[in-house]
From TrEMBL:
This is Transcriptional regulator. GO terms for molecular function: DNA-binding transcription factor activity; sequence-specific DNA binding. Gene3D superfamilies: Periplasmic binding protein-like II (3.40.190.10), Winged helix-like DNA-binding domain superfamily/Winged helix DNA-binding domain (1.10.10.10). InterPro entries: LysR-type_TF_proteobact-type, LysR_HTH_N, LysR_subst-bd, WH-like_DNA-bd_sf, WH_DNA-bd_sf. It comes from Mesorhizobium muleiense. It holds the Pfam family HTH_1.
Length: 298
């Protein structure tokens, strides 16, 4: 067997190896692949003979990856994923490509998604696949081309393009405001405060921005801004929310500003693109289109 052939095992053997590695069982892998257990075992043996390395450690009850097998399994899983994505791209869109995009839950649904119909109309040959991610991740491992990210422009190995700066302000429901004496920022400190799990120090920063000491004590905590906004509208307390995410509620009068000056956050919303995806045509098209919809800085 020549070197090139030895380094490129058959797809059937790789699929069998990935299934056994993921499921931890020859029987389960055979069931998933619609093969006999013996056929799966032969595929694994072919790989081990081809490389001259043991990929699994076996005993009477269990099968687990060897050290070499763990390293190889990660690479095989990524390679098979890329092949599946390429096949999906060919079947769903022959002439252009796929954009695998990570979005933030509330920013994605409230700011980005209303704009997407325009992108679809302008770029009919590009299909966007959306996934939700909060925080940093490995683009290669997740097989993602770009991300809408909240933070600082310091993602390693990637370009960060500013989209929207964030200004936060305290808001309440009209009913909540009408039933209480809230005239100054200091009054807010005596009311139930709604907290975001992703912004644990936000209220402290806001009170310091007003020249006040932050109150101590527990308060309801939420993972997503949309849920916090709903709780605020239900009269559960005062929420410190990004104005860009609650413009609809403010316009409809479902939320109203509470006393106090808005505060610009240190972080902002960015389009993050890993360096190896800079030239990917769907990414370039999406970035150019997105920048045309970014509001000008005031």
């Amino acid at each position: 067997m020549n070197v090139q052939r030895r380094l490129l095992p058959g797809i059937s053997a790789l699929a069998a190896f990935e299934a056994v590695a993921r499921l931890g069982s020859f029987t389960a892998a055979a069931r998933e692949l619609d093969l006999t257990q013996g056929a799966v075992s032969r595929q694994i043996r072919l790989l081990e003979d081809q490389f001259g390395r043991q990929l699994f450690e076996r005993d009477s009850r269990n099968v687990r990856l060897s050290t070499a097998g763990e390293i190889y399994a990660e690479a095989v899983r990524a390679a098979l994923g890329q092949l599946r994505d390429a096949a999906l791209g060919l079947m769903s869109n022959r002439h252009s490509g796929i954009l695998n995009l990570a979005i933030l839950p509330t920013f994605g649904t409230r700011w980005l998604m209303p704009l997407i119909p325009d992108f679809v109309e302008s770029n009919p040959d590009i299909t966007i696949n959306f996934v939700t991610r909060i925080g940093r991740f490995d683009f290669a491992r997740e097989r993602l081309d770009a991300a809408i990210h909240y933070g600082l422009p310091d993602w390693p190995g990637a370009d960060s393009t500013l989209l929207v700066r964030e200004t936060v302000a305290p808001v309440v429901s009209p009913e909540f405001l009408a039933g209480r004496a809230i005239a100054t920022p200091a009054d807010i400190g005596r009311l139930p405060l709604l907290h975001m799990a992703t912004r644990p120090g936000a209220w402290t920063e806001w009170f310091e921005h007003q020249g006040l000491s932050a109150p101590t004590g527990p308060g309801m905590q939420f993972e997503q801004f949309g849920t916090a906004a709903q709780a605020c509208m239900a009269g559960l307390g005062v929420a410190l929310l990004p104005q860009v995410l609650i413009s609809g509620e403010l316009q409809r009068g479902q939320l109203v500003p509470a006393p106090g000056r808005p505060m610009q956050s240190r972080s902002a919303y960015y389009l993050v693109v890993p360096h190896d995806k800079r030239g990917h045509p769907p990414v370039a098209s999406f970035r150019d289109w997105l920048l045309r919809h970014v509001p000008p800085e005031k």
